[in-house]
C-alpha cells in the first residue's frame, strides 16, 4: 500500500513538474495512506520537486509529525494537508505556486474570493447546472503556519475543493489523486482565462456575478 501510494504521488509530482509548477522549490503534495490511524505521505521540505528521489516523501501522522525517525523534514505547510485529511474523505492534496494563481489572488484578494460563471471547465468541480457559479476563496498568507492552517480549515468543507492563499499559491484536494489533479488543472485554466479576459475587457473586473 505504502509503495503504491508513493508511486502514485511520485507520478503526480512528475506531471506537475512537467508543467513547471514547482519554481524555486515551492509547492508540496500529499496522499493519504491510511484512515485508522490517519497517516499520509507528504513531500519533504525544501526539495527540488522536479527531481525523483528516494527522499521525496515521508510518512506523517494526524498531527503532521513523522511516523518514523527521519533525517527528512515534512513540508513547512504540512498542517494544511492535516486539516484536509482530518475534515474530509479526501485522498490527495496538492499545493503549487504559479504566476497565474498569484496574480489572480492579488487582483481579487480584497474580495476574499474569485468567482467564475459561464465557463465549461467549472464542471471539473462537479458543478453541472447551466448557470452555476464557482467561488474559490482567497485567504491571507499568514507567515505563522498554524494560523494559516486554521484560516484555511474554515474553507475545507467538502471532499474536494480549492483555496487560494494570497500572493502565495493554491491548495486543492480530491477524493483521489486524479480528482485533485483535475481540480488543480481546471483552476489554473480558469485563472489564465480570467487574466487574459481582463486584458481584453478590463471592466469585467468590476462585474458583480
Ligand atoms: C520556497 S517556497 C516557500 C515555502 C512554500 O510556500 C512552499 O510551498 C514549499 O515549502 P516546503 O516546505 O513544502 O518545501
Ligand atoms: Zn507554498
Automatic annotation (TrEMBL):
The reaction(s) annotated as catalysed by this protein in its Swiss-Prot or TrEMBL entry are:
5-(methylsulfanyl)-D-ribulose 1-phosphate = 5-methylsulfanyl-2,3-dioxopentyl phosphate + H2O
Q: What is its quaternary makeup?
A: Homotetramer.
- What NCBIfam families is this protein classified in? PRK06754.1, salvage_mtnB
Report the pathway entry.
Amino-acid biosynthesis; L-methionine biosynthesis via salvage pathway; L-methionine from S-methyl-5-thio-alpha-D-ribose 1-phosphate: step 2/6
Q: What is this protein called?
A: Methylthioribulose-1-phosphate dehydratase
Under Pfam families, the record lists: Aldolase_II (PF00596)
A single Gene Ontology molecular function, please? methylthioribulose 1-phosphate dehydratase activity
**What top-level branch of life does the organism fall under?**
Bacteria
* Residue span(s) of domain Class II aldolase/adducin N-terminal: 7-195
Amino acid at each position: 500500500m505504502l509503495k503504491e501510494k508513493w508511486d502514485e504521488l511520485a507520478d503526480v509530482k512528475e506531471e506537475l513538474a512537467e508543467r513547471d509548477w514547482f519554481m524555486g522549490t515551492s509547492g508540496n503534495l500529499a496522499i493519504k495512506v491510511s484512515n485508522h490511524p490517519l497517516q499520509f505521505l507528504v513531500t519533504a521540505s525544501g526539495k527540488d520537486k522536479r527531481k525523483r528521489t528516494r527522499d521525496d516523501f515521508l510518512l506523517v501522522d494526524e498531527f503532521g509529525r513523522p511516523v518514523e525517525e527521519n533525517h527528512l523534514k515534512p513540508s513547512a505547510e504540512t498542517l494544511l494537508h492535516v486539516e484536509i485529511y482530518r475534515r474530509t474523505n479526501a485522498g490527495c492534496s496538492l499545493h503549487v505556486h504559479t504566476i497565474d494563481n498569484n496574480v489572480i489572488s492579488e487582483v481579487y484578494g480584497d474580495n476574499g474570493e474569485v468567482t467564475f460563471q459561464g465557463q465549461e471547465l467549472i464542471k471539473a468541480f462537479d458543478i453541472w447546472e447551466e448557470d452555476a457559479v464557482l467561488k474559490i476563496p482567497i485567504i491571507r498568507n499568514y507567515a505563522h503556519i498554524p494560523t494559516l492552517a486554521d484560516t484555511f480549515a474554515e474553507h475545507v468543507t467538502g471532499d474536494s475543493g480549492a483555496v487560494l492563499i494570497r500572493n502565495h499559491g493554491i491548495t486543492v484536494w480530491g477524493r483521489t489523486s486524479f480528482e485533485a489533479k483535475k481540480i488543480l488543472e481546471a483552476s489554473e485554466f480558469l485563472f489564465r482565462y480570467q487574466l487574459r479576459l481582463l486584458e481584453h475587457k478590463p471592466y469585467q473586473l468590476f462585474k458583480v456575478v
